[in-house]
Amino acid sequence: MRILIVLLIAFIGLISAETNYRENLSDYGFFKGTLKDLIPADGVVPYALNSALFSDYASKLRFVKLPPGQSVAYNPDSVLQFPVGTAIVKTFYYPIDERNPKKGRRLMETRVLLHEEKGWVALPYIWNKEQTDATLEVAGGSDQVLWTDASGKKQSFEYQVPNMNQCKGCHERSGEMTPIGPSVRQLNDGQQLQHWETAGILKGLPKDHIPALVNYFNTAASLDDRVKAYLDINCAHCHNPTGPARSSGLYLTWDSKDRTAYGFLKSPVAAGRGSGNLSYDIVPGKPEQSILHYRMASRDPGVMMPELGRQLTHHEGVELVRSWIQSLQ
Amino acid sequence: MKLLTFLLSLLSLTALAQADFEKNLQKRLILAEDGSTIEIEAGRFQLTKTLSLEGKKNIILRGKGIDKTILSFKSQTQGAEGLRVSNCENIVIEDMTTEDSKGDLIKTMNVKGITFRRLKAAWTGGPKSTNGSYALYPVLCENVLIDSCIAIGASDAGIYVGQSKHIIVRNSEAYENVAGIEIENSLYADVYNNKAIGNTGGILVFDLPDLVQKKGGHVRVHHNLVKENNLKNFAPKGNIVGNVPKGTGMMVLAASNVEFFENQIINNATIGVAVISYYMTENAIKDKDYDPYPTAVSIHHNTFERKPRRVPMDSRFGKMYRFVLRFGRHVPAVVYDGILNPAKVGPDRKYPLDYSICVRDNVNQSTANLDAEHNFKGLKQGKDLFDCDLEHVKSTKF
């Protein structure tokens, strides 16, 4: 009987707390026409990042919506400080066949980041099988996904949608929820920021000296710049002096100057078996002796990095970091 | 008949609750109102992901008791920790068992006011390097109380308090971990009435470089039973506790203002209490703000007992004892590496009293100064090498 009562109380608690946010993605009106086509409504602006976070080979579509008449100030250093009322909408999907976009795509989840008076909140919406709408699931979820990759190989795994708390596991600075991607250095592709300025949502864009990260896939860029971009977007959201991994003393931010803090011959702290019996995070010239490489390559939940949002190994990313460490003197 | 229908529906509800337990519990943790109590029923539950409590105030997470409510993470596929609590205030976790997570069992980060009470946190397959690192792991926390807990099988430390302030660890037990209880880069800690038995090292007080919270200290370790910590070191390499020789009762590494008193330090094969600098790890120091020297360490009114025997050979320390120091079957209870901070020594090449290592009034007291910085040339042994008295470290209050 007591269990029943506890369950009942918990259930009532769930209902009352969940009504603070919209139940379905369609309730927000971010998109017009058929929802799954993700055609932005007026005032909803698509954007892309120079170097994107790896999320189990999912493709992503990103949109931002500022409150009417408002804008965001240029700032070269950190993520843009969007005004209260801003929504960032990111949809994760897999093309049915990466070689042939006409075959369509499977939408997995849409994460809505809302900037409320009390701060940002992250809300995971999971798409239904029919792909007609996505529903808020605070506890996240999982589903089998199948697709054909660019080389024609069939891929499949159990896709995980993070719960609301896990969202904050990455989206945190000094204990506060924050977006990760939309910084000037990530948006600066030579057009996007200028478009934002024209649209009136970005103020104070200078003519030059705008920082930019390279695309880590761009082999024309230097290995150093590519790795800097890769580690910044894939690791530095936690591994920075105010992030969730600050207790490790390993800071992989793009502008890091301290070589020890960047991992060079740095001993691990509280890594446990994540150390893989290795002594240092980065041993120049020796990727196989570097904990950074070891943890990126692993798929063991007790070892792998990042801890969240990844189940598959990002082979291209591991290879990039491997060849970079190999190249170091 | 009505009763039967009711009982049946209750039964199916319970079955449903079992199946949906994980998702429900996570949902309750996410949606909990500040000030609420989350009760977990009795039973053994298999979880596949890290449970997370985030950004809440005044929450009690309560089971039905040790080995009554059991959260097993044996089949974990996602997340490294069993339970993770972050960015909270005044959280109590009590009366349950957590087992077999892939990483740490209970990690709490950036929590002001965290109580671990009557918890068992264990890896159940014996001591193995594939076990997770820490059983109970508050880091960057304030006002930490660990009371009446049991930690077993951690491949690093069973009870580990890192980079925290104002800490009490009491009435707790640590078995078959690499380090039983470890206080690392932490300030104002009271560690008392605990048992550390059968670990590699019993109770450790460490200060490490390159961390957010730099300098630890003001630690009291008293009225503990530290016995037979002779387990083979099974920490994965690269971790600092991998350097702890098996047979270590207690160790101070580079920490300052540490007081050990009225402990029972029994049959630890290598060392009763070691006081050493970070230089003994032979790791390079690049952190300019780091102080690698232990200072103001006082060891008094403890009881040492050790059956005469040669030290185990399988650590660097063990080899050094046999071949360099040649201690034989009677090894000193208290060992100091004797590496001094040149900035702090007087013309007599000694520390002023308030930086000294003091050892006095212990039962079966024996001491050694290894003089490690001069390649052990000035090695000294005797009963009263460090006869002095320091001001007491104050007890911790929240």
Radius of gyration of chain A: 21 Å
The total count of strands of chain B amounts to: 29
The dominant shape of chain B is elongated
DSSP helix fraction of chain B: under 10%
What percent of the residues of chain A sit in helical stretches (DSSP H or I)?
Answer: 10-25%
Pick out the low-confidence regions of chain A: 8-19
Outline the low-pLDDT stretches of chain B. Answer: none
Secondary structure class of chain B reads: mainly beta
pLDDT averaged over residues of chain A = 91
Work out the largest interface and the residue count of each chain: A-B, 53 and 62 residues
Run of helices and strands of chain A: HEEEEEEEEEEEHEEHHEHHH
Which percent range describes the beta-strand content of chain B?
35-45%
Q: What is the rounded distance between the termini of chain B? A: 57 Å
The total count of helices of chain A amounts to 7
Strand percent estimate of chain A:
15-25%
Extended strand count of chain A: 14
Distance between the termini of chain A: 68 Å
Task: Note down, in words, how this protein is organized.
The complex is a heterodimer of chains A (329) and B (398). Chain A is α+β, with helices and mostly antiparallel strands and 329 residues long. Chain A has 7 helices and 14 strands. Chain A has a 6-stranded antiparallel sheet with strand order 3-4-6-7-8-9, with helices on one face. Chain A has a two-stranded antiparallel sheet with strand order 1-2. In chain A, strand 1 and strand 2 form a beta hairpin. The longest helix of chain A has 17 residues. Chain A is globular and about 55 Å long. The termini of chain A are far apart. Chain B has 398 residues and is mainly β. Chain B has a 29-stranded mixed sheet that branches. The radius of gyration of chain B is 23 Å and the shape is elongated. The model of chain B has no long low-confidence stretch (mean pLDDT 93). Chains A and B meet through helix 1 and helix 2 of A and helix 1, helix 2, strand 3, strand 6 and strand 8 of B.
